[in-house]
Amino acid sequence: MSIERWSEHIVVAELQDDPGFTDDLTALIDETEKNCDIDVVLNFEGVSYLNSSNIAKLLKLRKKLISQKRRLMLCAINTNVWGLFMVTGLDKVFSFADNVATGLASVQLTDG
Asked: How far apart are CA 68 and CA 89, in angstroms?
């Protein structure tokens, strides 16, 4: 994964399938604990599947960001992964964008 600081308050992370997915989200959670004024944009372009551990990490990251009044945007979700979000009802829990550029724009427009 690469974590790129897009601006002073926005981080973009490119995710891959496990085993890296879990490690990458753990690193992001640690980053949000150290730096509580960042929004996170996750690029799912390299992710073809999710397991329950991945979902738990995503929910933990979301909870951490919400407690800090920050945003989490999931971008470039493929059809298989999108189906999982829909079946589990998580499509109503997370914020999504078609691509990273749209996700960044959405986060920037709502960044207070």
From this structure: 24
Check pLDDT > 80 for residue 110.
no
Which residues have a Cβ under 8 Å from the Cβ of 23 and sit 6 or more positions away? 1
- What's the pLDDT score for residue 112? 52
Q: Could you tell me the CA-to-CA distances from 78 to 10, 30, 50 in Å, in that order?
A: 23, 27, 11
Domain count, the chain: 1
Q: Could you tell me if residue 91 is inside a domain?
A: yes
> Is residue 112 situated within a structural domain?
no
**What is the predicted pLDDT for the residue at 22?**
87
Tell me the C-alpha to C-alpha distance, in Å, between residue 47 and each of 19, 35, 68, 70. Answer: 11, 26, 27, 24
Domain containing 11 — which CATH number?
3.30.750.24
pTM, full prediction: 0.92
pLDDT band at 98 (very low <50, low <70, confident <90, very high): very high
